[in-house]
Write a structure and sequence with these properties.
Mean pLDDT: 88
Order of helices and strands: HEEEHHEHEHEEEHEHEHEHEHEHEEH
Helix content: 25-40%
Largest sheet: 6 strands, mixed
CATH architecture of the largest domain: 3-Layer(aba) Sandwich
Oligomer: single chain
Number of helices: 12
Structural class: alpha/beta
Strand content: 15-25%
Strand order of the largest sheet: 10-13-12-11-14-15
Distance between the termini: 38 Å
Shape: elongated
Number of domains: 2
CATH topology of the largest domain: Glutaredoxin
CATH class of the largest domain: Alpha Beta
Length: 407
């Protein structure tokens, strides 16, 4: 370990949370030169573009080692701006945290990253968050703890909803930055000194549960760098969701193909059966959608419910669809359900009085279809909507009930 000059003592630090960038491993240079770093980054980019155009398949890059310079980057942020290393040239210390929207562990640390930024903002600390994940490499069932995916648009929503006061950058399109730094999980921290030499890599602290934290590893590293002292622990293990490299796109595609083959059925149900469904005396969160084949918006939004079912069904959630078609239209109802791949608990009301149908499902329904209602075990309604559904609002209600982090 290196002892830093006394001129750094009492100076400010910069914390940055970034997505990963592809990198070729090189030995630590004897001196750091900004222009050399830029040339190296450009060279790496050109090589990777060439590889991407061939049949070569990139493997996960090694994690950047202590003593190496920070690879440059040029990435879009949720605020519409583009950021590079030079954007933080005034920072005494740069901390890059690779994080994302969907991961339960990453979500558990969102408030701590915000607090880190707030605590060091007057010490010239820059906090930047960048997502390393390729959104197309995410399986739907990997989104079970979130209302949002890892696309740039979803990142904008998360940053706005949670009031992120630091840049949140997107590297999911090429993952070149991510491969250069080599984060193995989200979140993963990389802290650089004033010369942008890596001095710490690892976890934020040692527990997802704030009340169980006994080792504030990132803060310890920051404080040491600010004081001009050696970082007490330079590397730690990281726990979280694995980085979603683009090579996983095939797995995501295969999962959709597998789910498309699931059996789709429909059963007749009477008014009494509907009232039992609405009471939800079971242990699973129940989403009920009343629809009809003759209702254009109903059929159009069925894929949204299919996706939600695939996302949350392994977490104490179930989807129930109830068709308001005439009983004699059962085969047509089944044909539409199969075409839309609705492998759920599908029912067709066997009566002719549609008012009885709606009253049995939800007495507060105004009558039209589609009608959607989310019911917790015991019968409490968490969401209801007559007319086209609001997928994001439903997902938020689901994860607010089921939880966004590991228990």
């Amino acid at each position: 370990m290196q002892t830093y000059p006394s001129t750094l003592r009492g100076r400010a630090l910069t914390v940055v949370t970034l997505a990963t960038f592809s990198r070729q491993q090189t030995p630590a240079p004897k001196e750091t030169h900004p222009m050399r770093n830029r040339h190296r980054s450009v060279l790496i980019a050109l090589v990777l573009v060439g590889l991407a155009s061939s049949s070569f398949v990139l493997c996960q890059a090694d994690t950047l080692e202590i003593g190496h310079p920070a690879p440059d980057f040029r990435l879009p942020g949720v605020d519409g701006k583009t950021y590079s290393l030079d954007s933080f040239r005034d920072a005494e210390v740069l901390v890059i945290v690779f994080t994302c929207n969907h991961c339960p562990t990453a979500q558990a640390y969102e408030s701590r990253i915000k607090q880190l930024a707030a605590d060091y903002k007057d010490k010239k600390v820059a906090v930047v968050a960048i997502s390393p994940n390729d959104p197309q490499a995410l399986r739907l069932d990997e989104l079970a703890y979130t209302d949002l995916g890892d696309s740039l648009e979803d990142m904008k929503t998360r940053a706005k909803d949670h009031g992120f006061s630091f840049p949140y950058l997107y590297d999911g399109e090429t993952q070149m930055v991510s491969r250069a730094y080599g984060p193995v999980a989200t979140p993963h921290v990389f802290a650089f000194d004033r010369q942008r030499t890596l001095r710490f890599t690892g976890r934020i602290d040692n527990s997802e549960k704030p009340d169980r934290v006994t080792s504030h590893d990132t803060r310890n590293a920051i404080d040491a760098l600010l004081a001009g002292k050696p970082v007490p622990v330079e590397t730690t293990k990281v726990f979280g969701c694995s980085t979603k490299w683009s090579e996983k796109r095939e797995s995501a595609k295969q999962s959709l193909e597998t789910w498309a083959k699931e059996e789709v059925t429909v059963k007749l149900i009477d008014e009494k059966g509907l009232r039992v469904l609405a009471k939800n005396e079971g242990k699973r969160l129940r989403l009920i959608n009343v629809w009809a084949t003759w209702c254009g918006p109903c059929v159009e939004e069925l894929p949204e419910f299919v996706a939600m079912n695939r996302i949350y069904r392994n977490r104490g959630f179930e989807l129930v669809t109830i068709s308001a078609d005439a009983p004699e239209e059962k085969e047509h109802v089944l044909e539409v359900l199969k075409r839309k791949q609705v492998a759920a608990d599908n029912f067709l009301f066997n009566g002719s009085d549609k008012y009885k149908l709606m009253d049995a499902v939800d007495e507060k329904s105004s009558g039209p279809v589609p009608h959607t209602i989310l019911i917790a075990p015991g019968g409490k309604v968490l969401y209801r909507k007559s007319g086209p559904c609001e997928p994001l609002a439903i997902k938020r209600a689901i994860v607010d009930y089921l939880g966004r982090t590991y228990k």
